[in-house]
Amino acid sequence: MDCNAAPFFAYHAVGLMRRYVRFFALAAFLHASLASAQNPIAIVGARLVDGTGTVPVEDSIAVVEGDRIQAAGRRGAVRIPGDATLVDAKGKFLLPGLVDVHCHINQPPDDMKRYWLAQLRWGVTTMRSAGNDKPETVPLFRETRRGAFLAPRAYTAGQGFSVNGPYPGAPVFNPATADEARANVRSLKAQGVDFLKIWMTNPKFSPDVIAAIVDEASKQAIPVVAHVTDVASLHQLAELGVTDFLHNPRDQPVTPDLVAYAKSRKLTFAPTLANMESPWFYYEHPDILGMPTLQDALYPRGRQMLADSRRRDETLSSDLARRKARMREQTYPFIKAMSDAGVRIVTGTDCGAEASQVTPFGHATHRELQMFVEAGMAPLAAIRAATLDAARVIARSEDPDYGSIRAGKAADLLLLDADPIADINNTIRISRVMRAGRWVR
């Protein structure tokens, strides 16, 4: 496809309004369907990739009743209810819905709902918003989990803790003292946030403020997630009991000692590769950029940036090869070494980040797991990282309610037209998406 085909990327205001109307109409229709009675659904004949990393099940049957998976396994081992609606999935591939542990969605409520719907259409059925959500939007996240409207299962940190950002005007706490930090944590508790977020970026909080944030969070039973890109900050927080990290240390190469330390502390990492790559990736892949589901998953300014031919040409003609190589050198060996050692690596993309604008909801999650495979993870391991393992990180449980296709689990499913084990890029070959037992695409 011709990258210079400007009309191909010219999305005018009228066209945008029409897409938004379609989005809201679809959301209203599908939400109304959630309240109606439905027969069981039997998905028959797919190759089942259950999210646990085990060998896929050929010619499977998965039965959904209400919002739960009633049974899943090989044909002959699963009984199909007599009143079930049959879905012929022969030649297709059934996965759990994807999970993204590192998103941002600081938007007005109606826009949040629209971007959540866009995320669902890409098969992302669970997301975690990491640190820029205003108090008035926190209740919306709980409503996604109650099924009040159509959206991924969503979690929020509310306002995170950052000295200077992460962008001008960001809704964050910037406590000057330990006592102020503790008061901020108690405010978050009163709001009912699901976790809290600390940015360990320069300039950093003083050690006593960091210790107070983590200690008060523990007293209030709120998990802590941290943005970390240097080894010293990683050690500082891990010694305080923090285990959940976004990004990865990039100030020095990964070492056996660091791997052993991470494993002993049961640390988890969401490397956030898609955000690092997005400034050039979509320019290089106009076939993906031109997809309506991709355009609907970008902020308006992000669409404008990616439609800017001058910006595109400057990006693709600059020292791009060096930037790509540096990004991979800083992340791929870390991912390979940690995952080989059994340290949990999971999908987290920074999608929706105000600071970047060009990391889209939904597709970025697919790109993240594709990059895990590029870094050396086996496709089945990468899929587990994007489903069950990511759910384990959010739920703080080895047996979460979602993230796998097993009896009793949430019926969040992704049906593909092509084999993601043979080619991980096939995860975007989406046939259908199910959220809480109802088809949403």
Write the layout of secondary structure elements.
Layout: H1 13-34, E1 41-44, E2 47-48, E3 60-65, E4 68-74, E5 85-88, E6 93-96, E7 98-103, H2 109-121, E8 124-129, H3 138-146, E9 153-156, E10 160-161, E11 172-173, H4 178-191, E12 196-199, H5 207-219, E13 224-227, H6 231-239, E14 244-246, H7 256-264, E15 268-270, H8 273-284, H9 286-289, H10 292-295, H11 300-307, H12 309-317, H13 320-340, E16 344-345, H14 363-374, H15 379-386, H16 388-395, E17 413-416, E18 430-435, E19 438-439
Parallel strand pairs: 1-5, 2-6, 7-8, 8-9, 10-11, 12-13, 13-14, 14-15, 15-16
Antiparallel strand pairs: 1-3, 3-4, 6-17, 17-18, 18-19
Output the keywords:
Urease, subunit C, domain 1; 40% helix; five-stranded parallel beta sheet; disordered N terminus; TIM Barrel; globular; 441 residues; 19 strands; five-stranded mixed beta sheet; 17% strand; alpha/beta
